[in-house]
Amino acid sequence: MRTPRVPPPRPALLLLLLLLGGAHGLFPEEPPPLSVAPRDYLSHYPVFVGSGPGRLTPTEGAEDLNIQRVLRVNRTLFIGDRDNLYRVELEPPTSTELWYQRKLTWRSNPSDINVCRMKGKQEGECRNFVKVLLLRDEATLFVCGSNAFNPLCANYSIDTLQPLGDNISGMARCPYDPKHANVALFSEGMLFTATVTDFLAIDAVIYRSLGDRPTLRTVKHDSKWFKEPYFVHAVEWGSHIYFFFREIAMEFNYLEKVVVSRVARVCKNDVGGSPRVLEKQWTSFLKARLNCSVPGDSHFYFNVMQAVTGVVSLGGRPIVLAIFSTPSNSIPGSAVCAFDMTQVAAVFEGRFREQKSPESIWTPVPEDQVPRPRPGCCAAPGMQYNASSAFPDEILNFVKTHPLMDEAVPSLGHAPWIVRTLTRHQLTRVAVDVGAGPWGNQTVVFLGSEAGTILKFLVWPNASALGTSGPSVFLEEFETYRPDRCGRPGGSETGQRLLSLELDVASGGLLAAFPHCVVRVPVARC
Ligand SMILES: *[C@@H]1O[C@H](CO)[C@@H](O)[C@H](O)[C@H]1NC(C)=O
Ligand SMILES: *[C@@H]1O[C@H](CO)[C@@H](O)[C@H](O)[C@H]1NC(C)=O
Ligand SMILES: *[C@@H]1O[C@H](CO)[C@@H](O)[C@H](O)[C@H]1NC(C)=O
Ligand SMILES: *[C@@H]1O[C@H](CO)[C@@H](O)[C@H](O)[C@H]1NC(C)=O
Ligand SMILES: *[C@@H]1O[C@H](CO)[C@@H](O)[C@H](O)[C@H]1NC(C)=O
Ligand SMILES: *[C@@H]1O[C@H](CO)[C@@H](O)[C@H](O)[C@H]1NC(C)=O
Ligand SMILES: *[C@@H]1O[C@H](CO)[C@@H](O)[C@H](O)[C@H]1NC(C)=O
Q1: How confident is the model over 478-487, as pLDDT tens digits?
Q2: CB 3.0-4.6 Å disulfide test: which of 213, 286, 331, 480 passes with 12?
Q3: Span from the CA of 291 to the centroid of ligand 5 (angstroms)
Q4: Are the C-beta atoms of residues 173 and 191 closer than 8 Å to each other?
C-alpha cells in the first residue's frame, strides 16, 4: 500500500531550495493548500470503467480498459482504448456513473498480428491501440490505431461509431508502438501529425497529409531538425501550426545529453520547396527554445516540458500555459510558465542560430547574411513569391540548414507562475479555467500529478504591459484516482498514471483519464 510521505530532502533538492530561496524571495516557501479534500469524498463521483448502460461493472471476464486517448465534443466523450472505441454521454452532469452508449471493437486482423509477433513484439503490444482521435467534421471522427505495429486510420461516424469508407495507412500519422507520444490536429481539412514513421521509431516527423495541399514532411535524419524529439502538443494560431516538444539540444557543446523544450512552427499554406531543394518538405519549419526558468544569481531551468494547454485569452493576450519538470534523474520539481503567442511569433522573426563547422560553437547569424525574403516566411498570392515552391534556392537552402532560432521564447513575467518542489509525484498535466469564480473573471490553474493528485491554484495574471503574474494561491489538493474502481486489487502501479486532465465547464467538473478508467470530479468541493 502506498503511504503518503514527503521524500527526505536530498542534497540536490536542498541546493534547489537554496537557489529558489535566493531568487529575490520569489519562491521562498511552498505553503500548503487552503483545503484538502477528505479521503472518502471521491466515492461520490462518476467513473467510466468500460461498462454499458445500467451496469456498474463491465461484463464478467472483460479485460481492463487500456485507454490511450480521450476526446470531448460538446457533451459527449469519445474514448480511444485498446481494440475499442467508446462513446459516453456526459449528460446529465449529476449522473452518478458514466456508461457507454456505443462501443465499437476494432481489432487487428490475424495476419497483422502474426507479422507483428514474427518481428519480435510481445502479444500485448500486437494489438490495436487508438493513438489518434480527432473530430474531422460535424459528423465524422478520424481515428488511427497502432494496429499491431502496422498503423491504420479511418473515418468513423460520430453517432454510430461505424467505420465510414476505407482504411488508409497510418504511417507518419500514428506511431507503430503504443508507447510512443504523438500529436495530431486537423486544420482546414489538412491533418498535421507529429510522430515517428517507422517500426524502429528512428524517423521522427512533423507531417501534413489529406486536404488539398501536397503532403509534406520534415527533413529525414537531420539532427538539426530533430534529435530524439518527444512531441507534447500542437495548436493552430494565425497562419501557422505550432508544435510543442522536447528534444536533445544540439546547440550545447556538452558531452552529456541535455533535454530542452521547444516550440516549432510551419505555415499552413506551405506547399514545399523546389524540385532542387526541400521538395515535398517544409520550407517554413523553424524552432525555438522555450525559457521556463527561475531568475536569480544562478539561473534554474525547468527543461522538460510535460503538457501544454490550448491558446486561451488572458488579460487580452493569447496565451498558452505549459508545465515543465526537472529531468527524472534530478530533484523532483515542476513549474508552470505562460507564453504569449505573439512573443512566440516574434522569436521566429528574430535572429537565426548556426554552427559554422562541426567543432565550432553555435552563434547568431548576422542579419546581413540572412537572405530576403525572410527564410521560413509564408508565401502567399500577391507577394513576390506566391507559393513556397517558387522561393529561390538560396532561401530554401538557408531554411534547410538553419531551423533553429537564436533566442529562446521568454515566459510571461520572466519567471514561472507556479513552482512546486515538494510534491511527492511529478506534475505532468495542466488545465486552465479563465472564466472561474462567481463573476467568471478569475483564473484557476489545475495541475495533475503522475498519480492523479490535483493541485488547484488561483492566479492573477497581470493585464499590464509586462504581463507578469501576481502571487498565486494554492487553493486545494484532491485525489482523482479511485483504487476501488480504476485498478484491479493487487494490480500494478502503472494503472495509476494520469493520462489526461480536461476541464468540462458545462458540468463544472474535471475529467481525469487513467489507463483503466475516466473519473469526473467537480472543480470545487463546497
Ligand atoms: C457542438 O456545439 C456547437 C454549439 O452548440 C455546435 O455548433 C456544434 O455543431 C456541436 N458539435 C457537434 C459535433 O455536435
Ligand atoms: C473521410 O471523411 C472526409 C470528410 O469528412 C472525406 O473527405 C474523406 O474522403 C473520407 N475518407 C475516407 C477514406 O473515407
Ligand atoms: C480496416 O481495418 C480493420 C482492421 O485491420 C479491418 O477489420 C477492416 O475490415 C478494414 N476495413 C476496410 C473497409 O478495409
Ligand atoms: C504565381 O505566379 C505565377 C507567375 O509568377 C503565375 O503564373 C501563377 O499563376 C501564380 N499562382 C498563383 C496561385 O497565384
Ligand atoms: C531565460 O530568461 C531569463 C530571465 O529573463 C534570462 O536571464 C535568461 O538569459 C534566458 N535564457 C535564455 C537561454 O534565453
Ligand atoms: C471580478 O468581477 C467582480 C465584480 O465585477 C470584481 O469585484 C472583481 O474585482 C473582479 N475580479 C478580478 C480578478 O478581476
Ligand atoms: C502589475 O504589473 C505592474 C507593472 O509591472 C505592477 O506595477 C503592478 O503592481 C502589478 N499588479 C499586480 C496586481 O501584480
Answers
A1: 999 988 888 7
A2: 331
A3: 6
A4: yes
